[in-house]
Amino acid sequence: MSLEELYRYLRWRMDPEDERAVERFRRIVKFFESLPDLPGGGRVLDICAGTGIAGAAVAKATGAKLLTVLDARREDLEKVSAWVDIAEIGPDVRKVIGDARNVAELVGKHDIAVLWGLTMPHFDPFDAVKLFAGVASILSDNGVFLIEETDRVYGILYRIGYKDMLIEAKGGDYTLISLHEGYNIMRGMFRRTYYKLPGFDKVAEQEFRLWDIASQLAIGSVFFREWRLIGREEHGVVGVSDVLYFRGPRKDVAKAVLGDK
């Protein structure tokens, strides 16, 4: 069963018809406007874009001339034009349906890349290396890669504790739960199965990794000359999590890694 099937029930606030999502969009724009050194008037790539809410926010904050949205879910990508209208901007928009791990093969050169919405759990450590290498390979020499993330080792494993059963979401007529099914020690991935109540209808099986911040910064430090964490307390924008900032891709390293794949 597909990720697209799961996201029909497990929804982020990214639908442009949802006023709460529009407020989230405004806050994301505020965050990007607070960064003084983002390339202006350039090319923005939104990876695992969903509806393109974050990509449109970057494009508005930087006056981008091109916005590329990459996601495996066609249905969500169709909504990016609504975000462009809400932002009152006019970049060229390119929709790319595909796997983020293959970003180097799917898009051309960009100046800013974003991976927004706490998306890293979809990638195991080997996927993450390929993702970072791919992004580094397509960014301009002074390009920037921004990832919105949180530390799940501290936030989940330490503060809460891993749960065999979780209520993941509630809709008007359903509750979505997930059950622990196993752990892949070679890939560092937990496996969970999702069910819809009432009826206990199986929705999807998915694997995910409980990433910490330090590991992601360490991988990024291999592929970028500059790297740092912009914590919630530092940026102060409600509704935006911790942000990992990478600048200046090491293209020789990226090329060597991608050449081995």
UniProtKB/TrEMBL annotation:
Biological processes, Gene Ontology terms: methylation
Molecular-function GO terms, alphabetical: methyltransferase activity
Domain (Methyltransferase) ranges: 44-143
Superkingdom assignment: Archaea
Alphabetic keyword roster: Methyltransferase, Transferase
InterPro entries xrefs: Methyltransf_25 (IPR041698), SAM-dependent_MTases_sf (IPR029063)
Membrane-traversing stretches: none
Name this protein carries in UniProt: SAM-dependent methyltransferase
